[in-house]
């Protein structure tokens, strides 16, 4: 069964190590060794995480001589943000209803305070 891009992106983002790698790459390019430094896992494990992120289109790898920098690719994150934004109206309307309810609860209190 083929997996859609949004599902692939969410699956890649589901792991905290991969999210930390993306957070580091948001500051600029880095090598695999640089990305592996803060983690207590093998270089091979970090490489596997990078393969998942690359397959999801969240990172790309360049080649400068022997140096292969990884860089963040924002396009899949824009797709996720757009998808989440579709639900913004739903949760904002819920907050608006809550605000109205709280306002109504406080009105009688104001009248009794006079």
Model description:
This is Metalloregulator ArsR/SmtB family transcription factor. Residues 1-92 form the HTH arsR-type domain. With 114 residues, the chain is mainly alpha-helical. Helices cover 65% and strands 5% of the residues. The protein has 6 helices and 2 strands, in the order H-H-H-H-E-E-H-H. It has helices at residues 5-13, 16-25, 32-36, 43-55, 75-85, 88-113; strands at 59-61, 70-72. It has a two-stranded antiparallel sheet. A hairpin with an 8-residue loop joins strand 1 (59-61) and strand 2. Helix 1 runs antiparallel to helix 4 and helix 1 (5-13) packs across helix 5 (75-85). The mean pLDDT is 88.
What does the secondary structure layout of this molecule look like, with pairings?
Layout: H1 5-13, H2 16-25, H3 32-36, H4 43-55, E1 59-61, E2 70-72, H5 75-85, H6 88-113
Antiparallel strand pairs: 1-2
Shape: elongated
**Strand element count:** 2
Order of helices and strands: HHHHEEHH
Task: Tell me the number of helical segments per DSSP (H or I, 4 or more residues long).
Answer: 6
List unreliable stretches of 5+ residues: none
Structural class: mainly alpha
Residue-averaged pLDDT: 88
> What is the distance, rounded to the nearest whole angstrom, between the alpha carbons of the first and last residues?
67 Å
Indicate the proportion of strand residues.
Answer: 5-15%
Based on CA atoms alone, the radius of gyration comes out at 22 Å
